[in-house]
Write the structure tokens for this entry.
Amino acid sequence: MLLCISNGNIINGKGGVFLGKDILIEKDRIVEIGTNLSKNVHRVIDATDMWVIPGLIDAHCHLREPGFEYKEDIVSGTRSAAAGGFTSVACMPNTEPAIDNAAMVQYIKLKSASEGKVRVYPIAAITQGRKGKHIAEMGEMKKAGAVALSDDGDPVSDANVMRLALEYAKQFGLLIISHCEDKSLVADGVMNEGYVSTILGLKGITRAAEEVMVARDVILSEITEAPIHIAHVSTAGAVDIIRHAKSRGIPVTCETAPHYFSATDEWVENYDTNAKVNPPLRTQRDVEAIKEGLRDGTIDIIATDHAPHHIDEKEVEFNLAANGISGFETAFSLSYTHLVDTGLLSLEELVAKLSTTPAQILGIPGGVLDIGLPADITIVDTKREYIVNRDKFYSKGKNTPFHGKKLKGKVIYTIVGGKVVYDKEVLT
Amino acid sequence: MALKRKDILGLRDMTQEEIVKILDTAETMKHILKQNNKKTRHLQGKSIVNLFYENSTRTRLSFELASKYMSASSANISASSSSVAKGESLIDTCRTIERMGADVIVIRHPMSGAAHIAARHVNTSIINAGDGMNEHPTQALLDLFTIRETKDTIEGLKVAIIGDIYHSRVARSNIWGLSKMGAKVAVAGPSTLLPIELDKTGTKVYQSVEEAVDGADVVMLLRLQKERQQKGLLPSLREYSQIYGLNMERLKLAKKDVLLLHPGPINRGVEITSDVADGIHSQIQEQVTNGVAVRMALLYLITRQRGQHDASLY
């Protein structure tokens, strides 16, 4: 089986940009990059005027299986990922039961290998049952295939447990991804604390709830010399703390999610529960700081924090609504629209944030297009404008505040291991 | 003339013109209340359901009496004694009430935005009778009515609101309503009970009661809920009453003819001393009467605008 992606503009993820070139794929691998490769092949994908980039890699998503299949499962979640241009996703362990032992890690690996549209890499829990008390069997989980550790959804509140986790995980080369949220400062807050929370009469969440724990964790990373990755950075202050930590040589990396540079707390107006997410949407000042952090490299990557929920969990009182945004299918377009089309980042830099660097941080394959490597490829049309329609999402989760918004830049094809899984905007 | 809206959710999205319309109508209603025979037929054939997820004396009873005085069919549901206790959602509950023929659902709910969510999912008119910390528009309208009745106008008055502004839906609705009517609003309270960035609404924010009350035409007290102390927002009620309580001495800083309001129920000796609450400046009892008149006006206006042509009775 020979597949040729013809006449595309290629970003290879390691500094190379080639305009109007062909990529030849045999079975699951790239075998040639050059010109006039489309003769005698089984299929030609015409990528004229499109960008051919390394398949997108999401370091933070929720596939909800096992336990919450009514929100999403591995089949629907990886279909959604494919439609969003992702060829590999790392899923969080806040399932029921939690992914906190080797058997659960293997279950996710096996299930996704047989049913998944894209590659799935399990992130396992830091602590047993994600309860923040006692570290989990990290060594065995690593052997079973865990790529990182996180209690995402809940913080590790006890600083000593976090210190021990960092020390213990380090010996296995496992990265700890920290969900930074001081629950005592959150109290019963449900949105960002600011003018909007004041006028809506909703209890606010101070930025300090995030920043206090980011500060704690970079200090613990420094003291243990263990790498730490800060999940879903949302505030200007957190960006500053991480920038400072990096300047001191602390092995910290971090991510933000598209909604933190595309939306503000004003989107909660009229109690729109689709704009309820944790950490909460912040203010324009924070959005600007997040963008600056992306530009100057303080923020290493963009992760979706894809958090699908059932409609019944959103069509309720704001206080009762579940936190989260269904993010796979808007991530590239939001990033392109707000970061590249505005001139803040080049498309190459965006590819690094959405593919090459996430692969490096997680230590997984991908993020680069080259001869001999697996053909995980995404093809995007950056001129294409469209209106987001959540009813067409492949995810079970239709919970997005971006429904009806006009975005630029669209995923047209997604190829995983040489197999076209998303073909001219249709799943195959 | 009617209101061009389906619901009464708050004063933040209401125009000055609409507020004036409601206050003018309430004046007519107050005449009816003072009559020997308080029965009118304004709401004959209309069905009003009070759906209360929180306890209430004044608001609930005044809505119920307002409905009855105007010949509506009215019914009350408490969350504790209904299917809500079995886990029925707010939206499902409202849809059920709608299908039984309710023209208006009056909702009191402990969570901000509850009335807005209900309003999005039913065609029945929703009147917000207090949603969490957000708004209590009918209370603010009766406060505006009482101020206008006493002072003839609201424009240009200095109104001081004292107490737990952070948790107060009464304060929020009054801030919107008063500023739309041209009053200058000042608030004061302990910093743990003041919402962030409130000054962006045009409100003057003080930490001392004295500064807020100084030269005020109207002083509005808020009830201090005792759980604020339990949650650690205040060291003690004693200290609160010492520093933030309204006594005669502090009231003297206001204008001589100052009007004193309190939405009730009063914590005597905490946010207000009894001599002030019962003194000559207090219109706290008149507020209760005006509450019925304002709610009659709202029920009348909101049912009329829904295309039900029985206006000849008016």
